TrEMBL record:
One of its GO terms (cellular component) is Golgi membrane. Keywords: Golgi apparatus, Membrane, Transmembrane, Transmembrane helix. It comes from Alternaria arborescens. The keyword Transcription does not apply. This is Golgi apparatus membrane protein TVP38. Golgi membrane protein involved in vesicular trafficking and spindle migration. The chain crosses the membrane at residues 48-67, 88-107, 119-143, 173-194, 200-224, 236-254.
Length: 333
């Protein structure tokens, strides 16, 4: 017969209810192990060599695309016009932008320029903004639920990551917005935001307010259609974007230097308190220095806190009267 839990049944509530769910730890880690970054080990370790090669190739391609972006856009223009003529073809650049939002993929600038060339300023900006926003939200959830443990380990061991996490956690919405507008790569900042307990609505609003940065890239694509050789407008736009992003990046860097000093001071203070606690509390393990498999110990070396050696007695000897327990019953004759 099965017992059913009745409403307001206090006796069976503890039996039927499952174990309480454990909440995920939030906030800064209590223990840290910040160490000086070993550049030699990082660059010469065999397991990092494929990543170095990949980043070098990506860097070279990025430089080439940045310098020769006009030629790249001109080569891709016929294909982009074919995509525009397809039914719902505007969904294709949005899908591409969503995919390349996940690191280490790249090419966002080229897609934005092509949208300006093919769709014009405002429609192109709407396409780029939609793809960028959805891609960043997807990156947020991917890092939050897939790389949470790795991020916590980095925050305990990597000083730069720990400083960025503390700055975003304590700085609130304003710091998140400045980081989104700065020269810090969006992929990196999104990964940090999603794994260091930044409020989701802070991230969403900051990402939405930073979308106007994309209109500059789209407008550059519009300017590529003009036959004028006057590059003054493009130069001014590039200069303005460069100055704003670099200025905000320098401001964030100065803030991070202050946070790094605070993190190192907190780590040293925790170590001092831990050392003082060890000196005040007696070490119980010293009473068990000898393992069971290390042989007998001379009784002359026993510590004063150890008990005396028990009296040896043969198996056929009667125990002394004082050793008998007073609770034993009287023997019946």
């Amino acid at each position: 017969m099965w017992f059913r839990k009745r409403e307001n049944d206090i006796e069976m509530s503890g039996m039927m209810d499952g174990a309480p769910k454990k909440k995920k730890p939030q906030g800064p880690p209590e223990e840290t192990e910040y160490q000086k970054f070993d550049w030699k080990r990082f660059f010469l370790a065999p397991k990092y060599i494929p990543w170095h090669i990949l980043f070098i190739v990506i860097g070279i391609l990025t430089v080439i695309i940045t310098i020769k972006h006009d030629a790249v856009v001109e080569k891709l223009r016929p294909w982009s016009e074919k995509v525009r003529d397809l039914p719902a073809g505007w969904l294709i650049p949005i899908a591409i932008l969503i995919v390349i939002s996940f690191p280490p993929l790249f090419g966002h600038e080229i897609i934005a320029l092509l949208c300006g060339v093919v769709y014009g300023l405002w429609i192109g900006f709407a396409i780029v903004a939609a793809g960028t926003f959805i891609g960043e939200v997807g990156t947020w959830y991917a890092f939050k639920y897939s790389f949470r443990s790795k991020a916590l380990k980095l925050e305990r061991t990597n000083l730069n990551y720990g400083a960025m996490a503390r700055l975003t956690r304590d700085g609130g919405f304003f710091i998140v917005l400045v980081i989104r507008l700065s020269a810090i790569p969006a992929h990196f900042s999104t990964a940090v935001f999603s794994t260091c307990d930044v409020k989701f609505w802070h991230f969403v609003v900051a990402t939405f307010l930073s979308l106007p940065k994309q209109i500059f890239l789209v407008y550059l694509g519009v300017l590529l259609l003009q036959e004028s050789n006057d590059d003054v407008i493009k130069t001014v736009m590039f200069g303005a974007i460069f100055i704003i992003t670099i200025a905000m990046g320098v401001w964030i860097y100065m803030k991070m230097r202050t946070v790094k000093s605070t993190l190192l001071e907190e780590q040293e203070l925790r170590r001092v308190k831990k050392a003082e606690a060890v000196e005040l509390v007696p070490n119980v393990e010293r009473a068990f220095d000898t393992r069971y498999d290390e042989g007998p110990v001379a009784w002359s070396t026993m510590q004063p806190t150890q008990v005396s050696r028990p009296m040896e007695r043969r198996y056929d000897e009667e125990p002394p009267e004082w050793a008998m327990a007073p609770t034993q019953p009287t023997r019946m004759v």
